[in-house]
């Protein structure tokens, strides 16, 4: 029988490792010392001085490792390593109960510093090898284990000789015992590794009335990240739906008042509190009206109330908008409840945008447009079922790092929505769009809106001579001239693998110039003009312009030329032309 390192618990893990390290260095002149107070030991758990070299074993009982959902353990390892450096060790060894993955090995080795100690990892595989070298430690730990289990539970089934079915029956039986301890409250419980989690649950809807439960948690919140402290403040002060999560490391005491089976003082542990919102406002129509600096209503959006409650300093209203892609929290202090007194909050600090789900362009565009307005609108009115609840005034938000990315996506979504409506083709906004597709989509949008616009793919035209010769043809081949040419095929663009057809277009330039006009005239002189390919380019503009051919060419003068005006894109201009500004 071998030790199950991931289930023996912190105390047993420390004792077994200490015994193995003592035996590993037995028979040498090494001095081995286990440091008392694991976790607060100046970065040392076991110290070995061997021939003048200092070896530090850092014990971290981390079942499951320190990747994935356990990445939060990494700062503890790093802190222990940095603290150990103060002792100038020659070797620093991390001891863990699980098999270290390759990324975990790489992460630990990356802690290395110049002129620092050698870094090693002693994981489950090496611990098993040490047990094989020192089987007496294994026998000592496993001594009479099965007999002790049977004596403890007083029945053969307690050893789970019946397999998983026995486990299920015992868990169900234990759950029934827990349910019977109190008529109003019960516990749901779970065990993962050496961690046991229990959650208080009402057995009926009047449990909190018949048997109120209060919880007092003492601790040092300064140990928590700023974001976590702000979340706790919002939940307590304004009653938001944010879950309160306090790790056991920041808890010094827990006191519960309520039913006898849970009342009293409890040792520090992880604490998680979630608020259940069942107020009458949940599910009602939530409307935002946004105003500019002149007091003009610039937009209105409707959503749904998802949470409404009060805390110690005020209340909160939360809602979802744009097919649940945008979530907002409004914090309303008690002193600002009167409708004629605006609430001063930074709304942008309590807004979440979720673009992870596929969606139609119009929904994505509306989501990002609303998010932008919420951050920068000077005043927002909040209405529930048509009734004004509060008016929010705010200092316009500071531009965030992702603002440019969001604006680009907003432009893209708006362009695609307009083109889709024109073409009668509808699909979700693609997850990836190339730079070329983005520009061509903007060109298509401007064409649909009736503009003349430069196309980046229209740098040169080519046509073949038919062998006929005339003075007029020779003039056209030697001088720039107005070009209005209806293309024989429909104009198409591709976005995210889908093809959208806009119909026929005109190619336009006020001074189209033959690039090889002299060669064409020479071919005519030789009688070799038939089939000669003439290349034509714009005289001053970098690209030819396009216009939809849905009206006679004579009406092109009524159309205006439009710039791309794309964020992050500099549209090439003719020499001396003013630069385009994105809008």
TrEMBL record:
Q: What name is this protein filed under? A: Uncharacterized protein
């Amino acid at each position: 029988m071998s030790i199950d390192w991931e289930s023996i618990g912190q105390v047993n893990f420390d004792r077994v490792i200490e015994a193995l390290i003592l035996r590993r260095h037995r028979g040498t002149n090494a001095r081995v010392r286990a440091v008392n107070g694991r976790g607060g030991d100046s970065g040392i758990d076991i110290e070995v001085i061997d021939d003048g070299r200092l070896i530090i074993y850092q014990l971290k009982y981390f079942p499951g490792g320190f990747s994935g959902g356990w990445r939060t353990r990494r700062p503890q390892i790093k802190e222990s390593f940095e603290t150990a450096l103060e002792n100038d060790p020659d070797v620093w060894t991390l001891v863990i109960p699980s098999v270290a993955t390759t990324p975990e090995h790489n992460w630990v080795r990356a802690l290395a510093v110049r002129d620092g100690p050698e870094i090693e990892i002693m994981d489950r595989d090496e611990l098993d090898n040490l047990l094989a070298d020192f089987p007496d430690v294994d026998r000592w730990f496993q001594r009479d284990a099965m007999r002790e289990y049977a004596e403890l539970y007083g029945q053969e089934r307690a050893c789970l000789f019946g397999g998983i079915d026995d486990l299920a029956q015992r868990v169900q039986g234990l759950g029934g015992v827990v349910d019977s301890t109190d008529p109003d409250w019960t516990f749901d419980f779970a065990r993962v590794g050496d961690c046991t989690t229990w959650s208080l649950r009402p057995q009926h809807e009047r449990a909190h009335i018949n048997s109120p439960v209060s919880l007092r948690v003492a601790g040092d919140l300064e140990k928590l990240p700023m974001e976590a402290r702000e979340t706790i403040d919002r939940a307590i002060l304004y009653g938001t739906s944010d879950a309160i999560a306090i790790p056991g490391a920041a808890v010094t005491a827990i006191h519960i008042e309520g039913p006898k089976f849970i009342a009293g003082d409890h040792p520090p542990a992880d604490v998680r509190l979630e608020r259940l919102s069942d107020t009458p406002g949940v599910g009602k129509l939530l409307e935002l009206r946004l105003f500019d600096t002149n007091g003009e209503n610039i937009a209105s959006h409707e959503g749904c109330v998802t949470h409404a409650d009060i805390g110690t300093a005020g209340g909160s209203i939360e809602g979802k908008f744009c097919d649940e892609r945008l979530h907002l929290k409004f914090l309303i202090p008690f002193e600002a409840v009167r409708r004629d007194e605006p609430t001063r909050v930074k709304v942008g600090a309590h807004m979440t945008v979720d673009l992870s789900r596929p969606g139609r362009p119009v929904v994505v565009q509306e989501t990002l447009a609303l998010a932008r307005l919420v951050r920068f609108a000077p005043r927002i009115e909040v209405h529930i079922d048509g009734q004004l609840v509060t008016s929010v005034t705010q200092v316009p938000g500071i531009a965030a790092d992702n603002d440019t990315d969001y604006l680009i996506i907003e432009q893209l979504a708006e362009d695609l929505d307009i083109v889709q409506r024109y073409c009668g083709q509808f699909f979700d906004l693609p997850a990836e769009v190339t730079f070329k597709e983005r520009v061509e989509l903007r060109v298509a949008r401007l064409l649909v809106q009736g503009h003349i616009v430069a196309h980046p793919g229209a740098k040169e035209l080519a046509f073949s001579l038919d062998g006929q010769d005339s003075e007029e043809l020779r003039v056209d081949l030697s001088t720039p001239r107005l070009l209005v040419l209806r293309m024989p095929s429909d104009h198409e663009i591709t976005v995210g693998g889908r093809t959208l057809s806009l119909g026929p277009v005109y190619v336009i330039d006020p001074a189209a110039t033959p690039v090889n006009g002299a060669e064409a005239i020479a071919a005519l002189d030789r009688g070799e003009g038939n089939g000669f390919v003439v290349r034509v380019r714009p005289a001053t503009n970098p690209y030819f312009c396009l216009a939809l051919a849905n009206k006679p060419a004579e009406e092109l003068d009524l159309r205006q030329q439009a710039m791309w005006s794309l964020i992050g894109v500099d549209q090439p201009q003719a020499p001396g032309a003013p630069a385009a500004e994105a809008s």
